[in-house]
Design goal:
- With 265 residues, the chain is mainly beta.
- The chain has a domain of 119 residues.
- Helix content is 0%, strand content 49%.
- The protein is built from no helices and 21 strands.
- A four-stranded antiparallel beta sheet has the order 3-4-5-6, with no helix packed on it.
- It is globular.
- It starts with 10 loop residues before the first strand and ends with a strand.
- The relative contact order is 0.09.
Protein backbone atom coordinates (compact mmCIF):
# COMPACT_ATOMS: atom_id res chain seq x y z
CA UNK A 1 0.00 0.00 0.00
CA UNK A 2 1.19 3.51 -0.77
CA UNK A 3 0.92 6.09 2.00
CA UNK A 4 0.19 9.80 1.99
CA UNK A 5 3.12 12.18 2.25
CA UNK A 6 1.42 13.97 5.13
CA UNK A 7 1.86 10.85 7.23
CA UNK A 8 5.58 10.55 6.61
CA UNK A 9 6.46 13.28 9.14
CA UNK A 10 7.89 15.33 6.30
CA UNK A 11 10.89 13.04 5.93
CA UNK A 12 12.03 11.91 2.52
CA UNK A 13 13.87 8.65 3.06
CA UNK A 14 16.12 7.28 0.39
CA UNK A 15 18.80 4.66 0.14
CA UNK A 16 22.46 5.11 -0.61
CA UNK A 17 25.44 2.87 -0.14
CA UNK A 18 27.41 5.73 1.39
CA UNK A 19 27.50 7.26 4.84
CA UNK A 20 24.94 9.93 5.71
CA UNK A 21 27.77 12.31 6.56
CA UNK A 22 28.84 12.39 2.92
CA UNK A 23 25.38 13.18 1.54
CA UNK A 24 25.20 16.83 0.45
CA UNK A 25 22.41 18.93 1.95
CA UNK A 26 20.07 19.48 -1.00
CA UNK A 27 16.60 19.16 0.55
CA UNK A 28 14.04 21.93 0.19
CA UNK A 29 13.12 23.94 3.27
CA UNK A 30 10.91 21.95 5.65
CA UNK A 31 12.16 18.56 4.45
CA UNK A 32 15.06 16.44 5.61
CA UNK A 33 16.91 13.69 3.77
CA UNK A 34 18.16 10.59 5.54
CA UNK A 35 20.53 8.04 4.05
CA UNK A 36 19.72 4.52 5.27
CA UNK A 37 23.04 2.90 4.42
CA UNK A 38 23.31 -0.74 3.34
CA UNK A 39 23.69 -4.28 4.71
CA UNK A 40 27.46 -4.27 4.38
CA UNK A 41 27.52 -4.01 0.59
CA UNK A 42 27.92 -1.05 -1.72
CA UNK A 43 24.35 -0.15 -2.61
CA UNK A 44 20.74 -0.42 -1.50
CA UNK A 45 17.30 0.51 -2.78
CA UNK A 46 14.08 1.44 -0.95
CA UNK A 47 10.85 0.12 -2.47
CA UNK A 48 8.13 0.51 0.16
CA UNK A 49 7.18 2.48 3.28
CA UNK A 50 4.28 2.33 5.74
CA UNK A 51 2.56 5.01 7.82
CA UNK A 52 5.09 4.58 10.64
CA UNK A 53 8.09 5.21 8.41
CA UNK A 54 9.24 1.58 8.30
CA UNK A 55 11.08 1.17 5.01
CA UNK A 56 11.65 -2.03 3.02
CA UNK A 57 13.74 -2.81 -0.02
CA UNK A 58 16.88 -4.65 -1.02
CA UNK A 59 20.55 -4.16 -0.27
CA UNK A 60 23.89 -5.58 -1.30
CA UNK A 61 25.50 -7.70 1.41
CA UNK A 62 29.06 -8.77 2.11
CA UNK A 63 28.26 -12.09 0.39
CA UNK A 64 27.78 -10.23 -2.88
CA UNK A 65 24.05 -11.05 -3.08
CA UNK A 66 21.12 -8.75 -2.38
CA UNK A 67 18.94 -9.34 0.68
CA UNK A 68 15.56 -7.92 1.64
CA UNK A 69 15.63 -5.48 4.55
CA UNK A 70 13.29 -3.65 6.93
CA UNK A 71 13.97 -0.60 9.08
CA UNK A 72 12.41 0.59 12.30
CA UNK A 73 10.09 3.59 12.52
CA UNK A 74 11.23 6.68 10.61
CA UNK A 75 13.85 4.64 8.79
CA UNK A 76 15.95 3.95 11.90
CA UNK A 77 18.22 0.91 11.65
CA UNK A 78 18.31 -1.74 8.92
CA UNK A 79 17.58 -5.43 9.52
CA UNK A 80 18.40 -8.23 7.08
CA UNK A 81 15.24 -10.30 6.47
CA UNK A 82 17.21 -13.28 5.19
CA UNK A 83 16.49 -15.54 2.22
CA UNK A 84 14.69 -18.69 3.51
CA UNK A 85 17.81 -20.67 2.66
CA UNK A 86 18.17 -19.18 -0.80
CA UNK A 87 20.87 -16.86 -2.03
CA UNK A 88 19.01 -13.60 -2.56
CA UNK A 89 15.81 -11.76 -1.66
CA UNK A 90 14.10 -8.42 -2.10
CA UNK A 91 11.21 -6.70 -0.31
CA UNK A 92 8.60 -4.87 -2.40
CA UNK A 93 5.92 -3.63 0.01
CA UNK A 94 5.04 -3.27 3.70
CA UNK A 95 1.73 -2.76 5.51
CA UNK A 96 0.99 -0.91 8.73
CA UNK A 97 1.55 -4.04 10.85
CA UNK A 98 5.04 -4.34 9.45
CA UNK A 99 4.19 -7.40 7.36
CA UNK A 100 6.49 -7.47 4.35
CA UNK A 101 5.89 -8.93 0.89
CA UNK A 102 8.70 -9.67 -1.52
CA UNK A 103 10.57 -12.33 -3.45
CA UNK A 104 13.24 -14.89 -2.59
CA UNK A 105 15.65 -16.48 -5.06
CA UNK A 106 16.79 -20.04 -4.38
CA UNK A 107 20.27 -21.42 -5.00
CA UNK A 108 18.94 -22.84 -8.29
CA UNK A 109 17.61 -19.42 -9.40
CA UNK A 110 13.92 -20.19 -8.74
CA UNK A 111 11.97 -17.18 -7.46
CA UNK A 112 9.04 -17.40 -5.03
CA UNK A 113 6.93 -14.70 -3.38
CA UNK A 114 7.13 -14.41 0.41
CA UNK A 115 5.34 -12.76 3.33
CA UNK A 116 6.61 -12.06 6.83
CA UNK A 117 4.88 -11.63 10.15
CA UNK A 118 4.58 -8.30 11.96
CA UNK A 119 7.66 -6.07 11.84
CA UNK A 120 9.34 -8.39 9.36
CA UNK A 121 9.57 -11.33 11.78
CA UNK A 122 9.72 -14.72 10.07
CA UNK A 123 9.42 -15.41 6.34
CA UNK A 124 6.90 -17.71 4.65
CA UNK A 125 7.12 -18.98 1.07
CA UNK A 126 3.81 -18.24 -0.70
CA UNK A 127 4.37 -20.86 -3.39
CA UNK A 128 3.07 -20.49 -6.96
CA UNK A 129 0.02 -21.04 -9.17
CA UNK A 130 1.48 -24.37 -10.26
CA UNK A 131 4.57 -23.18 -12.11
CA UNK A 132 8.11 -22.58 -10.85
CA UNK A 133 8.01 -18.80 -10.39
CA UNK A 134 6.16 -16.15 -8.39
CA UNK A 135 6.88 -12.56 -7.39
CA UNK A 136 5.07 -10.36 -4.86
CA UNK A 137 4.35 -6.71 -5.63
CA UNK A 138 1.97 -5.39 -2.97
CA UNK A 139 0.37 -6.09 0.41
CA UNK A 140 -2.56 -4.48 2.24
CA UNK A 141 -3.26 -4.11 5.96
CA UNK A 142 -5.04 -7.50 6.07
CA UNK A 143 -1.94 -9.22 4.74
CA UNK A 144 -3.44 -9.93 1.32
CA UNK A 145 -0.55 -10.19 -1.14
CA UNK A 146 -0.66 -9.63 -4.91
CA UNK A 147 1.85 -10.23 -7.67
CA UNK A 148 2.49 -12.54 -10.60
CA UNK A 149 3.09 -16.28 -10.86
CA UNK A 150 3.65 -18.88 -13.54
CA UNK A 151 0.83 -21.40 -13.87
CA UNK A 152 1.17 -25.12 -14.56
CA UNK A 153 0.68 -24.37 -18.27
CA UNK A 154 3.51 -21.83 -18.27
CA UNK A 155 1.33 -18.70 -18.46
CA UNK A 156 2.10 -15.71 -16.23
CA UNK A 157 -1.00 -14.67 -14.27
CA UNK A 158 -1.75 -12.11 -11.58
CA UNK A 159 -2.54 -13.58 -8.16
CA UNK A 160 -4.09 -12.56 -4.85
CA UNK A 161 -3.88 -14.31 -1.49
CA UNK A 162 -6.27 -14.30 1.43
CA UNK A 163 -5.41 -12.54 4.71
CA UNK A 164 -1.89 -13.11 6.04
CA UNK A 165 -0.79 -14.61 2.74
CA UNK A 166 -2.95 -17.74 3.01
CA UNK A 167 -3.61 -19.46 -0.32
CA UNK A 168 -3.01 -18.08 -3.82
CA UNK A 169 -5.83 -17.38 -6.28
CA UNK A 170 -5.38 -16.90 -10.03
CA UNK A 171 -6.93 -13.58 -11.13
CA UNK A 172 -6.97 -14.61 -14.79
CA UNK A 173 -6.59 -12.14 -17.66
CA UNK A 174 -8.62 -9.66 -19.71
CA UNK A 175 -9.27 -12.38 -22.25
CA UNK A 176 -5.92 -11.98 -23.96
CA UNK A 177 -4.67 -15.44 -23.09
CA UNK A 178 -1.45 -15.95 -21.21
CA UNK A 179 -0.39 -12.80 -19.36
CA UNK A 180 -1.45 -10.61 -16.45
CA UNK A 181 0.42 -9.07 -13.53
CA UNK A 182 -0.83 -7.38 -10.34
CA UNK A 183 1.01 -4.32 -9.04
CA UNK A 184 -0.93 -3.10 -5.97
CA UNK A 185 -3.89 -3.78 -3.67
CA UNK A 186 -5.92 -1.50 -1.40
CA UNK A 187 -7.47 -2.27 1.98
CA UNK A 188 -10.72 -3.43 0.35
CA UNK A 189 -8.89 -6.00 -1.74
CA UNK A 190 -9.23 -4.12 -5.03
CA UNK A 191 -6.29 -5.06 -7.23
CA UNK A 192 -4.70 -3.16 -10.12
CA UNK A 193 -2.19 -4.27 -12.71
CA UNK A 194 -1.77 -5.05 -16.39
CA UNK A 195 -3.05 -7.80 -18.66
CA UNK A 196 -3.16 -8.84 -22.28
CA UNK A 197 -6.59 -7.88 -23.60
CA UNK A 198 -8.61 -9.47 -26.41
CA UNK A 199 -7.26 -6.69 -28.65
CA UNK A 200 -3.80 -8.22 -28.23
CA UNK A 201 -2.50 -5.13 -26.42
CA UNK A 202 -1.44 -4.64 -22.80
CA UNK A 203 -4.14 -2.84 -20.80
CA UNK A 204 -4.49 -1.66 -17.21
CA UNK A 205 -7.07 -3.47 -15.08
CA UNK A 206 -8.89 -3.12 -11.77
CA UNK A 207 -10.78 -5.77 -9.82
CA UNK A 208 -13.63 -5.61 -7.36
CA UNK A 209 -13.17 -6.25 -3.61
CA UNK A 210 -10.97 -9.25 -2.76
CA UNK A 211 -9.88 -9.58 -6.37
CA UNK A 212 -13.32 -10.45 -7.77
CA UNK A 213 -13.74 -9.77 -11.48
CA UNK A 214 -11.31 -7.92 -13.74
CA UNK A 215 -12.24 -4.71 -15.58
CA UNK A 216 -10.27 -3.20 -18.45
CA UNK A 217 -9.43 0.44 -17.64
CA UNK A 218 -8.86 1.16 -21.33
CA UNK A 219 -6.81 4.03 -22.77
CA UNK A 220 -7.51 7.72 -23.30
CA UNK A 221 -9.48 7.03 -26.47
CA UNK A 222 -9.48 3.23 -26.69
CA UNK A 223 -8.15 3.39 -30.25
CA UNK A 224 -5.42 1.28 -31.79
CA UNK A 225 -4.00 1.52 -35.29
CA UNK A 226 -0.91 0.52 -37.23
CA UNK A 227 0.61 3.99 -36.80
CA UNK A 228 -0.46 4.73 -33.20
CA UNK A 229 -0.50 2.01 -30.56
CA UNK A 230 -1.75 2.92 -27.07
CA UNK A 231 -0.87 0.71 -24.10
CA UNK A 232 -2.00 1.46 -20.55
CA UNK A 233 -0.72 0.29 -17.17
CA UNK A 234 -1.83 0.67 -13.55
CA UNK A 235 0.76 0.88 -10.78
CA UNK A 236 -1.07 1.90 -7.60
CA UNK A 237 -4.54 2.18 -6.02
CA UNK A 238 -5.86 3.99 -2.94
CA UNK A 239 -8.73 3.06 -0.62
CA UNK A 240 -11.16 5.20 -2.66
CA UNK A 241 -10.45 3.09 -5.74
CA UNK A 242 -8.55 5.84 -7.57
CA UNK A 243 -5.83 4.37 -9.77
CA UNK A 244 -2.48 5.84 -10.78
CA UNK A 245 -0.65 4.56 -13.82
CA UNK A 246 0.40 5.59 -17.27
CA UNK A 247 -0.14 5.43 -20.98
CA UNK A 248 2.44 4.59 -23.63
CA UNK A 249 1.93 5.81 -27.18
CA UNK A 250 4.01 4.19 -29.89
CA UNK A 251 3.92 6.32 -33.03
CA UNK A 252 4.93 4.80 -36.38
CA UNK A 253 6.59 1.90 -34.52
CA UNK A 254 9.52 4.10 -33.50
CA UNK A 255 8.62 7.05 -31.24
CA UNK A 256 7.42 6.34 -27.69
CA UNK A 257 5.55 8.88 -25.56
CA UNK A 258 4.76 8.18 -21.89
CA UNK A 259 1.94 9.99 -20.09
CA UNK A 260 1.01 9.72 -16.41
CA UNK A 261 -2.66 8.99 -15.67
CA UNK A 262 -5.09 8.97 -12.77
CA UNK A 263 -8.38 7.07 -13.07
CA UNK A 264 -11.41 7.77 -10.87
CA UNK A 265 -14.80 6.08 -10.86
Amino acid sequence: MNTQLAKLKRIVIFLAGISTASIPVMAHAGWSIKGLGALGGGSSSALGINDFGQVVGESDTTSGYQHAFITGSDGIGMTDLGTLGGRASGAASINNSGQVAGTIVSASDISHAFITGSNGIGMTDLGTLGGNYSQAAGINDSGQVVGVSLTASGSAHAFITSSNGVGMTDLGTLGGGNYSQASDINNFGQVVGISLATSGYIQAFITGPNGTGMTDLGTLDGAHSIDVVMLSFASSINDSGQVAGGLTLQVALSTHILQALMVSA
